[in-house]
Amino acid sequence: MGLDIELAHGLAREMGVTLAFVPVDRERMPEQLADGYCDLVMSGVVVTTNRARAMLLSDSYLDETLAFVVPDDQRAQYASWEAIRDRGPLTIAVPDAPYYVRKLRDLLPSAVIQVHADGVEPLFDRSRTPADALALPAERGSAWTLMHPQYSVVVPGPDPIRVPLAYPIGKRDQQLANFVNTWIALKRKDGTLDAAYKHWILGQDTTPRQPRWSIVRNVLHWVE
Known about the structure:
By secondary structure, this protein is of the alpha+beta class. The protein is 37% helix and 18% strand. Strands 1, 3, 4, 5, 6, 7 and 8 form a 7-stranded mixed sheet that branches. The longest helix has 16 residues, at 174-189.
């Protein structure tokens, strides 16, 4: 489930092809695409010059904004990069995303950067991850704060740091790249990307799923 998964299903439907999801090693993406292991990586890949040399990259379909997820009462302390530096040495937890790790080390050279490869959820367990703040893209962090409302997302000022996301494609597949670029442009114009962003990232336009009718619940009222 998620924004990229929804878009992958939509792309496959419009291409008239079947869809299969396979795990991808981000360090070996160029080789796996070149070998035909997969045709397209639809998993929030940050655009970098190194990746642009090794693979075809689609047009950007979404920008992410570097942000911190912090306890509500500490929002003001992360409102600017200057304020963060004034706090002194900090411990910042971040998922295993090399671009964001390098950026944080450049911007906050005195901070201890804890890189975690086991996903985002463990970062909210302070007993397992005793960090001062979590570094996440604001667009992803906002979704996590819906499940952890004691936290807030803060984008340090004065100038937000944004990075584009794209879909990597094998160098041999220029025809596929052209199609995907046209598809992204169409989905941006017809509101598909905006609707997916609001639903999956901002948590808007969601309707709680109603339980199926049953004798136990609706007649006997044994459960709520």
